[in-house]
């Protein structure tokens, strides 16, 4: 089975977006996202694909989930379900689930790890939330805290969680 990671930036209420846009602009979060996902497979929903400023992300296998068989996403493969997309992956493929909320909810039971950027702030407006990270299922593996600076208006932490062996 492929290794499955979920990657997201969440505020203190677990909010992840508003009107199909990210809530915070954190250059280091974007750099981390790029360094982790480059050379790997990214799976996203159609709206997340449509929110990408330049379309399919370079140097990655882009996979989009859409229940509409007519959906076309240039530079990406389209699958009708998460299960179908995961079945198309090789055993040695590292898969990153990059959103949105309904895809995160579907992927949580399959995920091996969560790569979250936990932002020490609350977005003024949000309409999409990350599912609950249950401490009964997930255990913090590492935390790298960063203070606010001239490029980052609030402090944040890169936090990786692994699924507990039950």
Automatic annotation (TrEMBL):
- A GO CC term attached to the entry: cytosol
Print the organism lineage: Bacteria, Pseudomonadati, Bacteroidota, Bacteroidia, Bacteroidales
Q: What protein name applies here?
A: Dihydrofolate reductase
One Pfam family of this protein, by short name? DHFR_1
Tell me the route in metabolism or biology where this protein functions: Cofactor biosynthesis; tetrahydrofolate biosynthesis; 5,6,7,8-tetrahydrofolate from 7,8-dihydrofolate: step 1/1
- Per the record, what are the reactions this protein catalyses? (6S)-5,6,7,8-tetrahydrofolate + NADP(+) = 7,8-dihydrofolate + NADPH + H(+)
Where is coiled-coil annotated? none
Which GO molecular-function terms appear in the entry? dihydrofolate reductase activity; NADP+ binding
Task: Sum up the protein's function in the record's words.
Answer: Key enzyme in folate metabolism. Catalyzes an essential reaction for de novo glycine and purine synthesis, and for DNA precursor synthesis.
InterPro entries linked? DHFR (IPR012259), DHFR-like_dom_sf (IPR024072), DHFR_dom (IPR001796)
- Into which EC class is this enzyme placed? oxidoreductase
Its GO biological process terms?
dihydrofolate metabolic process; folic acid metabolic process; one-carbon metabolic process; tetrahydrofolate biosynthetic process
Q: What is its EC number?
A: 1.5.1.3
Provide the DHFR domain boundaries. 3-163
Q: Which UniProt keywords apply?
A: NADP, One-carbon metabolism, Oxidoreductase
The family assignment reads: Belongs to the dihydrofolate reductase family.
Q: Which PROSITE patterns match?
A: DHFR_2
Q: Which domain of life is it from?
A: Bacteria
């Amino acid at each position: 089975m492929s290794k499955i990671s979920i990657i997201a930036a969440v505020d203190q209420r677990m909010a992840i977006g508003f009107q199909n846009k990210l809530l915070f602009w954190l250059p280091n979060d974007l750099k981390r996202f790029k360094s982790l996902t480059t050379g790997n497979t990214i799976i996203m929903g159609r709206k997340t694909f449509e929110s990408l400023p330049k379309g399919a992300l370079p140097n990655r296998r882009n996979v989009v989930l859409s229940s509409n068989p007519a959906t076309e996403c240039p530079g990406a493969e389209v699958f009708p379900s998460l299960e179908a997309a995961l079945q198309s992956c090789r055993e040695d493929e590292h898969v990153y689930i990059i959103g949105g909320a309904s895809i995160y909810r579907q992927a949580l039971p399959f995920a091996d790890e969560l790569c979250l950027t936990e932002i020490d702030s609350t977005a003024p407006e949000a309409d999409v939330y990350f599912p609950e990270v249950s401490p009964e299922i997930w255990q913090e593996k590492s935390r790298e805290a960063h203070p606010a600076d001239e490029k980052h208006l609030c402090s944040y932490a890169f936090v990786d969680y692994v699924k507990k062996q039950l």
